[in-house]
Amino acid sequence: MNTPGRDSRPPIRVLVAEDHPIVLEGLVTLLSGQGGFSVEGSATDRSGLRTLTQKVSADVLLMDLMLRDDDGLALIKELVAQHPPLRILVFSLQPESNYAERCLRAGARGYLMKQEPVETLFAAIRTVAAGSVCLSPRMAAALLGTLTGAARKPAGAYAQLTDRELQVFRLIGLGKSSREAALQLGISSKTVEAHRENIKNKLGLDSAAALVARAAVWVREGERN
What we know:
Elements: E1 12-17, H1 21-32, E2 37-43, H2 46-55, E3 60-63, H3 72-82, E4 87-92, H4 96-106, E5 110-113, H5 118-129, H6 137-148, H7 163-173, H8 178-185, H9 189-203, H10 208-220
Parallel strand pairs: 1-2, 1-3, 3-4, 4-5
Protein backbone atom coordinates (compact mmCIF):
# COMPACT_ATOMS: atom_id res chain seq x y z
CA MET A 1 0.00 0.00 0.00
CA ASN A 2 1.33 3.46 -0.92
CA THR A 3 1.82 5.97 1.85
CA PRO A 4 -0.83 8.72 1.57
CA GLY A 5 0.57 11.88 0.00
CA ARG A 6 3.83 10.25 -1.13
CA ASP A 7 4.68 10.23 -4.85
CA SER A 8 5.03 6.60 -5.90
CA ARG A 9 6.17 7.38 -9.44
CA PRO A 10 9.69 6.23 -10.41
CA PRO A 11 12.33 8.98 -10.39
CA ILE A 12 13.21 10.78 -13.60
CA ARG A 13 16.49 9.35 -14.87
CA VAL A 14 18.85 12.20 -15.78
CA LEU A 15 22.18 12.46 -17.55
CA VAL A 16 24.24 15.63 -17.08
CA ALA A 17 26.73 17.02 -19.61
CA GLU A 18 28.74 20.03 -18.44
CA ASP A 19 32.40 20.89 -19.09
CA HIS A 20 33.01 22.95 -15.93
CA PRO A 21 33.81 20.48 -13.11
CA ILE A 22 32.47 22.68 -10.30
CA VAL A 23 29.21 23.35 -12.14
CA LEU A 24 28.89 19.66 -13.01
CA GLU A 25 29.42 18.60 -9.41
CA GLY A 26 26.88 21.17 -8.24
CA LEU A 27 24.24 20.00 -10.71
CA VAL A 28 24.74 16.35 -9.81
CA THR A 29 24.54 17.16 -6.10
CA LEU A 30 21.41 19.28 -6.52
CA LEU A 31 19.58 16.69 -8.58
CA SER A 32 20.68 13.75 -6.44
CA GLY A 33 19.44 15.51 -3.31
CA GLN A 34 16.09 16.39 -4.82
CA GLY A 35 13.33 13.81 -4.63
CA GLY A 36 12.09 12.58 -7.97
CA PHE A 37 15.41 12.60 -9.83
CA SER A 38 18.06 9.94 -10.31
CA VAL A 39 21.37 10.98 -11.88
CA GLU A 40 22.47 8.05 -14.02
CA GLY A 41 25.77 9.49 -15.22
CA SER A 42 27.67 12.57 -16.34
CA ALA A 43 30.09 13.68 -19.02
CA THR A 44 32.34 16.67 -19.66
CA ASP A 45 32.85 16.49 -23.43
CA ARG A 46 31.39 15.20 -26.70
CA SER A 47 33.30 11.92 -26.64
CA GLY A 48 32.32 11.13 -23.07
CA LEU A 49 28.69 12.02 -23.75
CA ARG A 50 28.58 9.78 -26.81
CA THR A 51 29.90 6.87 -24.75
CA LEU A 52 27.56 7.62 -21.87
CA THR A 53 24.42 7.70 -24.00
CA GLN A 54 25.40 4.41 -25.64
CA LYS A 55 25.81 2.65 -22.30
CA VAL A 56 23.21 4.26 -20.05
CA SER A 57 19.46 4.70 -20.52
CA ALA A 58 17.84 7.88 -19.24
CA ASP A 59 14.74 10.02 -19.64
CA VAL A 60 16.36 13.45 -19.86
CA LEU A 61 19.76 14.74 -20.89
CA LEU A 62 20.62 18.06 -19.25
CA MET A 63 23.41 19.46 -21.38
CA ASP A 64 25.44 22.61 -21.76
CA LEU A 65 25.32 23.87 -25.33
CA MET A 66 29.08 24.33 -25.59
CA LEU A 67 31.10 21.36 -24.37
CA ARG A 68 34.78 22.30 -24.62
CA ASP A 69 33.96 24.53 -27.61
CA ASP A 70 32.32 21.67 -29.51
CA ASP A 71 29.38 22.33 -31.79
CA GLY A 72 26.37 21.79 -29.57
CA LEU A 73 23.78 22.03 -32.35
CA ALA A 74 25.39 19.24 -34.34
CA LEU A 75 25.70 17.14 -31.18
CA ILE A 76 22.00 17.57 -30.41
CA LYS A 77 21.08 16.40 -33.92
CA GLU A 78 23.39 13.40 -33.57
CA LEU A 79 22.03 12.33 -30.18
CA VAL A 80 18.40 12.76 -31.23
CA ALA A 81 19.01 10.58 -34.30
CA GLN A 82 20.78 7.87 -32.31
CA HIS A 83 18.63 7.93 -29.15
CA PRO A 84 15.08 9.07 -30.05
CA PRO A 85 13.58 8.38 -26.58
CA LEU A 86 16.14 10.64 -24.88
CA ARG A 87 14.73 14.12 -24.30
CA ILE A 88 17.31 16.89 -24.34
CA LEU A 89 17.11 20.01 -22.19
CA VAL A 90 19.77 22.57 -23.04
CA PHE A 91 21.09 24.42 -19.99
CA SER A 92 23.23 27.30 -21.17
CA LEU A 93 24.71 30.74 -20.66
CA GLN A 94 24.18 31.50 -24.35
CA PRO A 95 21.27 33.92 -24.91
CA GLU A 96 18.03 32.16 -25.75
CA SER A 97 17.32 34.73 -28.46
CA ASN A 98 20.30 33.37 -30.39
CA TYR A 99 20.03 29.67 -29.69
CA ALA A 100 16.70 28.45 -28.28
CA GLU A 101 14.88 28.20 -31.61
CA ARG A 102 17.95 26.64 -33.26
CA CYS A 103 18.17 24.01 -30.51
CA LEU A 104 14.50 23.11 -30.89
CA ARG A 105 14.96 22.75 -34.64
CA ALA A 106 17.92 20.46 -33.92
CA GLY A 107 15.69 18.24 -31.78
CA ALA A 108 16.04 19.50 -28.20
CA ARG A 109 12.89 19.62 -26.09
CA GLY A 110 13.77 22.66 -24.05
CA TYR A 111 16.14 25.57 -23.48
CA LEU A 112 16.91 27.07 -20.08
CA MET A 113 19.32 29.84 -19.16
CA LYS A 114 21.73 29.13 -16.31
CA GLN A 115 20.65 32.34 -14.58
CA GLU A 116 17.28 30.79 -13.73
CA PRO A 117 16.48 29.71 -10.12
CA VAL A 118 17.04 26.10 -9.08
CA GLU A 119 13.31 25.44 -8.78
CA THR A 120 12.88 26.52 -12.40
CA LEU A 121 15.51 23.97 -13.41
CA PHE A 122 13.70 21.20 -11.55
CA ALA A 123 10.40 22.18 -13.15
CA ALA A 124 12.00 22.29 -16.60
CA ILE A 125 13.35 18.76 -16.25
CA ARG A 126 9.93 17.51 -15.16
CA THR A 127 8.29 19.29 -18.09
CA VAL A 128 10.66 17.81 -20.65
CA ALA A 129 10.46 14.33 -19.07
CA ALA A 130 6.67 14.50 -19.39
CA GLY A 131 7.01 15.02 -23.13
CA SER A 132 6.34 18.75 -23.27
CA VAL A 133 8.55 21.55 -24.58
CA CYS A 134 10.13 23.92 -22.07
CA LEU A 135 10.94 27.53 -22.93
CA SER A 136 10.85 30.80 -21.04
CA PRO A 137 7.54 32.70 -21.36
CA ARG A 138 9.33 35.36 -23.43
CA MET A 139 10.77 32.85 -25.90
CA ALA A 140 7.56 30.84 -26.11
CA ALA A 141 5.63 34.00 -26.96
CA ALA A 142 8.17 34.95 -29.64
CA LEU A 143 7.96 31.52 -31.30
CA LEU A 144 4.19 31.48 -31.08
CA GLY A 145 4.13 34.85 -32.78
CA THR A 146 6.21 33.42 -35.61
CA LEU A 147 3.92 30.43 -36.05
CA THR A 148 0.75 32.53 -36.04
CA GLY A 149 2.18 35.19 -38.32
CA ALA A 150 2.03 37.85 -35.61
CA ALA A 151 4.52 40.68 -35.91
CA ARG A 152 7.46 40.58 -33.56
CA LYS A 153 10.56 42.60 -32.95
CA PRO A 154 13.40 41.47 -35.23
CA ALA A 155 15.75 39.08 -33.43
CA GLY A 156 18.84 40.99 -34.53
CA ALA A 157 21.49 40.79 -37.20
CA TYR A 158 22.76 37.38 -36.10
CA ALA A 159 19.35 35.75 -36.56
CA GLN A 160 19.87 35.83 -40.33
CA LEU A 161 22.92 33.56 -40.06
CA THR A 162 22.35 29.87 -40.69
CA ASP A 163 23.28 27.38 -37.98
CA ARG A 164 26.54 26.57 -39.76
CA GLU A 165 27.38 30.23 -40.29
CA LEU A 166 26.77 30.93 -36.62
CA GLN A 167 29.08 28.03 -35.72
CA VAL A 168 31.81 29.42 -37.98
CA PHE A 169 31.27 32.94 -36.63
CA ARG A 170 31.68 31.73 -33.07
CA LEU A 171 34.90 29.88 -33.89
CA ILE A 172 36.26 33.00 -35.58
CA GLY A 173 35.50 34.88 -32.38
CA LEU A 174 37.41 32.25 -30.42
CA GLY A 175 40.46 32.93 -32.57
CA LYS A 176 40.28 29.79 -34.71
CA SER A 177 41.81 29.84 -38.19
CA SER A 178 39.82 28.59 -41.17
CA ARG A 179 41.80 25.36 -41.05
CA GLU A 180 41.11 24.86 -37.34
CA ALA A 181 37.43 25.64 -37.80
CA ALA A 182 37.24 23.19 -40.69
CA LEU A 183 38.80 20.41 -38.61
CA GLN A 184 36.48 21.07 -35.68
CA LEU A 185 33.34 21.18 -37.83
CA GLY A 186 34.32 18.33 -40.13
CA ILE A 187 34.17 20.41 -43.31
CA SER A 188 36.75 21.73 -45.78
CA SER A 189 38.70 24.97 -45.37
CA LYS A 190 37.19 26.10 -48.68
CA THR A 191 33.70 25.68 -47.22
CA VAL A 192 34.69 27.66 -44.13
CA GLU A 193 35.98 30.45 -46.35
CA ALA A 194 32.66 30.48 -48.22
CA HIS A 195 30.81 30.76 -44.91
CA ARG A 196 33.08 33.63 -43.87
CA GLU A 197 32.17 35.52 -47.03
CA ASN A 198 28.46 34.91 -46.48
CA ILE A 199 28.74 36.12 -42.88
CA LYS A 200 30.56 39.28 -43.97
CA ASN A 201 27.85 40.04 -46.51
CA LYS A 202 24.98 39.41 -44.10
CA LEU A 203 26.52 41.51 -41.33
CA GLY A 204 27.62 44.29 -43.69
CA LEU A 205 31.33 43.87 -42.96
CA ASP A 206 33.90 44.97 -45.54
CA SER A 207 37.02 43.05 -44.52
CA ALA A 208 38.35 39.94 -42.84
CA ALA A 209 39.73 42.09 -40.03
CA ALA A 210 36.29 43.58 -39.40
CA LEU A 211 34.80 40.08 -39.31
CA VAL A 212 37.35 38.88 -36.74
CA ALA A 213 36.83 41.97 -34.59
CA ARG A 214 33.03 41.67 -34.70
CA ALA A 215 33.13 37.97 -33.85
CA ALA A 216 35.56 38.51 -30.98
CA VAL A 217 33.32 41.18 -29.44
CA TRP A 218 30.27 38.94 -29.84
CA VAL A 219 31.96 36.05 -28.03
CA ARG A 220 33.41 38.30 -25.33
CA GLU A 221 30.04 39.88 -24.59
CA GLY A 222 28.41 36.52 -24.11
CA GLU A 223 27.14 36.24 -27.69
CA ARG A 224 24.38 38.78 -27.20
CA ASN A 225 22.63 40.52 -30.08
